[in-house]
Amino acid sequence: MEGTRSAYPHSNPHSNETKQGLMFPPETRRCTRLIGRSQTVREELMVDQRLTEVLNYFLCKTTKNWYSQKQHTYTTYPILSISLSMDVRAGAAGQRLHRDDKNYHVDHRDQTASGYARESDVEMAVLFPGVQTTKENGATLVIPGSHLWGDDRAPTYEECTYATMMPGEALVFLGSTYHAGGTNATTDQNRPMHGLFFVRGVTRTEENQYYTYPPEEVAKWSKEAKVRAGFGLSNPNIGFVDLMSPMDWADGKKLEDFDCMDNDAMDCQLESKGVYEF
Ligand SMILES: O=C(O)CCC(=O)C(=O)O
Ligand SMILES: [Fe+2]
Fold it and tell me: Is residue 154 domain-shared with residue 175, that is, in the same domain?
């Protein structure tokens, strides 16, 4: 996609600004707020017409409902869920194979025989590399066709293909597709990748709590009230600010304040830990 090159200096995953908490392998850096850092990513890539058509095709949902005897039809459109850059540096271990829509607690039924039913997915990603990605430097691993699998089927690395790319190309995939950032087995190459992740527009609250109340007011609320109003996290990964829960972030905490490596058994909302599980 046009603009990939100019995204890189803005997000700059090599800079010291890049977040590197204790829960992340030291060789992998992540840099949040990409659309705020790069006008190109925000005003060109994110709203690219071709991307918009693909996103709308898969993520829009139209439903009908009755208001007494009058039937209404509504369509919800995709919105941005995350924008960030990920720099898998030399020697970085690869990610575990995962579906990005795990964050939205999606149920997957086996569609291998029936074929893909439109509106099955609620999440989509587009990844665009800052350098040429290769099998050696950590190209994204993808299992083609895995968006059709039911929840009882586990992914294996043998089923993967490498999404090798040149700067200017992009990988677009559904939230139900198994994939993983690859291992960077080189000793001297960094693999910066920029990502935009989108969700169906209904995946937000009816009243926007974050704009409705000023942070100074929320700061005076009880922890229970903050959590109930959505200022904690939904496990895994939903609702973060700079990879932290909004309430921790508003309290001025830093990622380095957290030492949690594994949130599998933890309720982030109650424990209020800053965790992100890729
Ligand atoms: O870095 C990559 O190639 C993939 C990243 C990814 O899968 C994720 O962040 O969810
Ligand atoms: Fe992912």
Answer: yes
